[in-house]
Amino acid sequence: MVVEDALDRERVAAEIASLEAAGNGGDGEVRAVAMTFLRRLPRRRSDLSADDVICQAVVVTYPTPDGPRSYVMEATVQVPSGAGDMAADGCRVRIASNIDVETLGVRITVRGTSFRQQNGSTTVCTHAALGSTCRSMGGPDIGSDALNVLLNAGANPRSILPSQLNVAVAGLGFEAVSYDLSELPGASHPRPQDEITWELICCLVESGYPVLLVFSTASPIDHVVPVIGYAVDPDAWIPVAANLYRQRGGSDAISSSAWIDRLVINDDLLGPAYHLSRATILDGAPHRGLKPKSMIGLLPTKIELSSVVAEKIAAEVLDRWLSRLVKVRGEAVWLSRLAGAGAQLVLRTTLASKAEYMAHLRRLDPAGEAFHKENLGAMSATLPSMFWLCEVSLPQVYVGNRAKLGEVLVSIKELAADETDNDANVLAFRLPTILAWRADDDCFALTRTGLDSHGPLHRPPAACFPARAAELSAAAPAAGDGGAGA
């Protein structure tokens, strides 16, 4: 471990000036140190590389009337490298980017995720969650003064309402997609609220977009934590048991979120990379006063149809269409297996852009022989810039191979005139030997492809920080130009 004085760092100086301007300090010395944890200490500083860095934490200690208080102003934790960015504990951190750290006079870029603690004076958990999330997405290192301006915190930055958080998210260039979890499910979701909550969170995080999860606590004050990753348990019993023992009939599909057993969260009061189990939410009972209250997804575009509704639509249309498609492509073995009696579909829904999806199709066909270029071009011309990508698989294929047999593309906007016309929300679909897209409002153009078996799942890239947000954060007043909430 390398410990260095950090008082001369620009961000630290701004933080201390903000604390002093708030007038909550006491008598004593202000200190700041950067602690860098290394896998090895090289003989020469020039030999130091990103692979050597585990974590760097900048700790500020400032005097208060009750004595000195220390907190982690900013920490950068390197995410696991290698296949699928999967850690030894099976967790995949999705909210991460390249972040610069400096130690021993050397500036090093590591792929990591950011963690912050509140200081209890000019910042609370909301500041910590929002600031660290922006940093983890490759955004600027936004200080407490700038965050208070975005949150419109005024003279009391220690009491932030959910509406202020939504405004701040929008001010940073995101679309704030909010769900009041106490109001789920609605009439169109005849399933338990906690199950829908889990699917909503898992879909966004697996898509590479952060979620701010708000918990009600035993005290009157809510607590905000960012969700940065998840863990898949391929040996989970419930999904496959539900397939074996389920009641038959209806649109028989299971969400891939059933295999996600943990979320990875940062808690500014406890530390980074804690695990939030599926059971904590699905058992329907609060744990010592903790219960999910609301969630805010930080997305690049407005969403009218939720991922849960999109997945429900995909399940319903497949239930009706597969038997008809088998009559057209009866020679396709895997298509017949999807439509077979007793088959249960697995649906994995992520938010995808048109560019990502077209690139994904090219990766499925590296030789360039499975699709006619004219067909790909015609389909691409009909697609909007973003949509829900509902990947279709079977339990054994999804778990054993992490693979799928096709996908249904569902609009993120409400296109149907009413809830009974779900077909109108389907933009295109691909199944074994079939590629189809909207020819007009009433029918699809159905074409043949050379892909007749399963292929790898789509791996969404981690979301990037909006470009215009850097300008917004830079426009905030510097420390000492008016204090928190100026």
Q: How would you sum up this structure, described in words?
A:
With 486 residues, the protein is of the alpha+beta class. Helices cover 28% and strands 30% of the residues. The chain has 13 helices and 22 strands. The strands form four sheets. Strands 5, 8, 9, 10, 12, 13 and 14 form a seven-stranded antiparallel sheet that branches. α8 (307-328) packs across α9. The longest helix is centred in the middle third of the chain and has 22 residues, at 307-328.
| Spatial gap, N to C terminus | 38 Å
Mean pLDDT: 85
Largest sheet: 7 strands, antiparallel
What is the tally of beta strands?
A: 22
Residues in β-strands, percent:
25-35%
- Give the low-pLDDT segments: 186-190, 468-486
Helix content: 25-40%
Rg, please? 25 Å
Structural class determined from secondary elements: alpha+beta
Count of alpha and pi helical runs: 13
Shape field: elongated
Q: Keywords for this structure?
A:
single chain, alpha+beta, seven-stranded antiparallel beta sheet, 13 helices, 28% helix, elongated, disordered C terminus
Compile the SSE list and pairings.
Blueprint: E1 2-5, H1 10-22, E2 31-38, E3 53-64, E4 67-78, E5 91-93, E6 97-103, E7 106-115, H2 125-136, H3 144-150, H4 162-171, E8 175-180, H5 193-206, E9 211-216, E10 223-232, H6 237-245, E11 253-255, E12 260-267, E13 271-277, H7 278-282, E14 291-299, H8 307-328, H9 333-339, E15 345-353, H10 354-364, H11 373-382, E16 386-393, H12 395-401, E17 403-404, E18 406-410, E19 426-431, E20 434-438, E21 444-448, E22 455-456, H13 467-474
Parallel strand pairs: 11-15
Antiparallel strand pairs: 1-2, 2-3, 3-4, 4-7, 5-10, 6-7, 8-14, 9-10, 9-14, 10-12, 12-13, 15-16, 16-18, 17-22, 18-19, 19-20, 20-21
